[in-house]
Amino acid sequence: MSALRLTRPSANGQAHNGNGNGAVDAPARPDPRRTTTARPTTQLAARVGLWALVGLGALGGLVGLLRPAAEPTVSDAGSSADDIVPPETAGFAEVAVTTWVEAQGDDADSALGPLYAQDPSTNAGDTGRRRVAGDATTIGARQVQDDYWAVTVAVPVEEAVDGGWQDAGTWYAEVGIARSDGDLVAVAEPALVPAPVEPADAPRPAGDSLVIPSQDDEEMANTVQGFLSALLANSGDVSRYLAPDVEILPITPAPFTEVALQRWDVTPVDDGEARVRALARARSAGGVPRTLSYELGLAERAGRWEVTSLSGAPTIDADEGAPSSAGTVQSSTTTTAPTTTSVSIASEPGA
User: Fold this and answer.
1) Which pLDDT belongs to residue 282?
2) How many CB atoms within 10 Å of residue 271?
3) What is the rounded CA–CA span in Å between residue 160 and residue 330?
4) How confident is residue 121, by pLDDT bands cut at 50, 70 and 90?
5) Mean pLDDT within 185-210
6) Following DSSP, what letter does each residue of 64-118 receive, concatenated?
7) Are 177 and 153 in contact (CB under 8 A)?
8) How many domains does one find in the chain?
9) Which of 85, 245, 276, 336 is the 20 to 30 Å CA partner of 217?
10) Omega of the bond prior to 253 within 30 degrees of 0, cis?
């Protein structure tokens, strides 16, 4: 590959020659036939212009000296790089850990060879005695150095015991994944590490003081109940519970056949508007129950409450773990909106 060659201009504005010896072409001699005598007025104007430029340059330098130095710009592009793992690296770690859990015995080399820089130790007598009973999931990662990450993967494991499979719990395996010559490789066999611990000051959803809706809130409760039933159980038209210009589609196929609003917390956010954290109990056609949590935005219009937003990520309490002190908003509506859905409230989560 040819070396990069830099060309430096000579004194007369011409470039060095390209022979690589550093010689500079001689400046061209002026043609006496093209030389003319400058007029005195022209010379004076040129001198005045030259000194004006010199003065402006000196003034600019003085201003530069008096002006305080600008603060250096610090890029924060890599400030969180240590906590980020590329998606392909996380996926490779999951494959490497899953293969390591299952590939034991005589077939280990062919399975682990393409994934690991060094073949992990295996026991030939353990072939088929352990398996991954579900999906491996990356739950943590840190960047050790450039192109090298420590990735923690959670793996549900089962072991063969007395001719059957027995739950061996969830393994949390940390494995080093490096990028070498553009390819990913596991540096060594994974290490089992402790399970994640609950943070000392975990965020708590606002409105976690869930209560059973009272009869005074029947109108708002009917809206929440009817909306969730239409959303989850195909019971009625979802759009009848929505505010204008709000579009929320029902879940199809419907995963449940019945939905009951259990508890809620209602926080007023503005005049005629409220944020509702709702806990609902749903049941499938096979009778399998499931508790679901939603945060709904509601607005009062024309004598009825309408849904303005839907979220599965509740607002976090601003007090960082302190119970929400928001009370329950009371409906100020005096006209009862027509509805065919009556609120069904389960007294306990297992009901």
Assistant:
1) 96
2) 8
3) 58
4) low
5) 86
6) HHHSPPPPPP---TTTTGGG---HHHHHHHHHHHHHHHH--STTHHHHHTTTBSS
7) no
8) 2
9) 245
10) yes
Residue 231: CATH number of its domain: 3.10.450.540
Per-residue pLDDT tens over the stretch 22-34: 444 444 444 443 3
Residue 231 covered by a domain: yes
Same domain? For 241 and 280 the reply is yes
Asked if the structure places residue 119 within a domain, the reply is yes
Q: So what's the pLDDT on residue 123?
A: 56
Same domain, 208 and 351: yes
Using one digit for the tens of pLDDT, what is the confidence trace for 245-287? 999 999 999 999 999 999 999 999 988 999 999 999 999 999 9
Both 150 and 218 in one domain: the answer is no
Task: Quote the pLDDT of residue 249.
Answer: 95
User: What tokens appear for 306 in the block?
Assistant: 């309408």
What's residue 125's pLDDT?
52
Beta strands in the chain (DSSP E): 130-132, 137-145, 148-161, 164-180, 183-186, 191-192, 258-270, 273-283, 289-301, 304-311
- 219 plus 99 within the same structural domain: no
Provide the greatest CA pair distance for the chain.
114
- C-alpha 139/C-alpha 151 separation (Å) is 8
Smallest CA-to-CA distance from 132 within 161, 163, 171 is with 171
Structural domain boundaries, residue 322: 201-351
pLDDT of residue 83: 57
264 & 346 share domain:
yes
Whether 230 is in a domain gets the answer yes
Instruction: Give, as one character, the DSSP assignment of residue 33.
Output: G
For 67, residues 6+ apart whose C-beta sits below 8 A from its C-beta are: none
**Residue the block writes with tokens 């201009």:** 9
Residues composing the chain: 351
Instruction: Point out the domain boundary residue: 167, 192, 217.
Output: 192
Judge if 220 and 344 occupy the same domain.
yes
**Residue closest to 251 by CA, chosen among 310, 180, 323, 189:** 310
